[in-house]
Design goal:
- This protein is mainly alpha-helical and about 425 residues long.
- It has helices at about 1-10, 20-35, 45-75, 85-95, 100-105, 115-135, 140-170, 175-205, 220-245, 265-280, 285-305, 315-335, 350-360, 365-370, 385-400, 410-435; strands at about 80, 110.
- The longest helix is centred in the N-terminal third of the chain and has 32 residues, at about 45-75.
Length: about 425
């Protein structure tokens, strides 16, 4: 018997073709049945078959990894167009899709998933058939065969398909539109898992309610892939925002604003608006999270630009120009680019910038200092260190350019006022650092 084991140990490292492994299994079964007919014990031969079965499943998984990869590479990540009733039936006969609203629509129409979804579903069923082939003639109960099928299908879903999906999501050519389609696709594949359960049950006639029945873990595979795709959407959106921000070209010493928002900012807003229109097919919370994440990232990026340590001087005109751009951000947030936000939730992403700019535009230091620390303060979101950093940048320009026209008559008093505010802000900052 050791000779059989050694032969298989040698063979399995080279055999990557499931059909060859299947042929080997069939030969061993015929040999075992013949020996058993002559009264010889064949238990060890069947033990060898179980070892070969594991190898057979491994070769199947490798083969289907290539199949899945090719399906994903050839997909166009667009909803499936159906021109006629025949085309519609051709899809729903391969994949369990039911949507009363879409069924009512006249032809031509589009199904929400892309072409890879029915193809993947069909291939999972083909894998189950291929896995079943090994169990034939092994003299095993249908309960054991059911368990084997479910376990091998779980490996296909949680290891092979999951790995292919994760690799797909990380590919550089997969953009925002494709990621949105992948999220929609995984939602439909997740919903189809119960039909795969039924498919195995119909083959084995083993009730899924049986105590020892293994469940399919496809739900976790598709949820994980969806979460990964969502994460990629958030990071890709932020990357695009960064690309637009890099195009910003402020004249930080300008005497007055241009009277209209900056070109780069309007281009960025237009990009976000068109992007979120694509998100209308996404689950509500994903679209909302992406929108909130983008607004927060934009707000943080603008604040960092204003407080950049490399930026030494800012004129009041530049602050006014910056304010016009932030107003456009607020208008975008209030236009409900994605439905489902309560009240001004999205606008609050820009609240830190708004309060900081209001403080400087109105030059409302007496109110800020008097109300500091009060929960009802008009400038509650303005940190003293932030206010100080910006005021230091403006202090230098006011000395050089005398751009505060309202203070021209008593510029000396103005300088004293700035020095006084700077001292008070420093004392607040020092107080904060001592408390922390």
């Amino acid at each position: 018997m050791d000779a059989y084991g050694n032969l298989w140990a040698f063979d399995k490292s080279y055999c990557s073709d499931p059909d060859l492994v299947l042929e080997l299994k069939n030969l061993i079964v015929i040999f075992a049945d013949t020996l058993q007919g002559y009264g010889y014990p064949v238990n060890r031969l069947f033990d060898l078959l179980f070892e070969i079965r594991d190898q057979y499943n491994e070769t199947l998984l490798k083969k289907w990894a290539l199949v899945f990869r090719e399906i994903f590479e050839l997909d166009n990540y667009s909803p499936i167009p159906v021109e006629t009733e025949e085309e519609y039936k051709s899809v729903v006969n391969r994949f369990p899709f039911h949507d009363a609203e879409i069924e009512k629509q006249a032809f031509p129409k589009k199904l929400p998933m892309s072409q890879s979804v029915p193809q993947i579903y069909v291939q999972v069923k083909e894998f189950i058939y291929a896995s079943l082939k090994f169990s034939e003639s092994l003299h095993r109960s249908w309960t054991e065969i059911d368990d084997m099928l479910r376990k091998s299908t779980n490996l296909l879903l949680t290891r092979t398909l999951s790995g292919c999906l994760q690799n797909l999501i990380k590919k550089p050519h997969i953009g925002l539109t494709e990621l949105v389609q992948i999220i929609i696709n995984t939602t439909h594949l997740e919903q189809a898992c119960k039909y795969l359960e039924d498919f195995i049950t119909n083959i084995t006639n083993v009730s899924p309610e049986t105590v020892h029945t293994t469940r399919l873990y496809g739900l976790s595979t598709f949820k994980d892939a969806r979460h990964a795709a969502e994460g990629e959407i958030y990071s890709k959106l932020n990357q695009k925002i960064d690309e637009f921000i890099q195009l910003a070209d402020y004249d930080w010493g300008m005497p007055e604003s241009d009277g209209q928002a900056s070109g780069y900012l309007m281009d960025l807003i237009n990009f976000l608006r068109s992007t979120f229109q694509v998100f209308t097919h996404l689950p509500g919370k994903v679209a909302q999270t992406a929108c909130m994440s983008a607004c927060k990232h934009l707000s943080t990026s603008l604040m960092q630009m204003l407080l950049d340590s490399e930026l030494k001087q800012i004129s009041m005109g530049a602050v006014q120009q910056f304010n016009l751009d932030v107003i456009q951000c607020e208008l975008f947030a209030s236009s409900e680019p994605v439905p489902g936000f309560q009240g001004d939730t999205l606008q609050l992403a820009f609240i830190d910038l708004r309060q900081l700019l209001d403080l400087f535009m109105v030059w409302d230091w007496s109110t800020y200092l008097a109300d500091y620390g009060q929960p009802t303060s008009k400038y509650l979101r303005v940190n003293p260190s932030t206010a100080l950093a910006l005021l230091e940048k403006m202090k230098d320009t006011s000395k050089k350019n005398n751009i505060f026209s309202q203070f021209r008559k008593n510029d000396r008093d103005k300088q004293k006022l700035i020095e006084t505010v700077v001292k008070q802000l420093r004392s607040l900052v020092n107080g904060m650092s001592q408390h922390s």
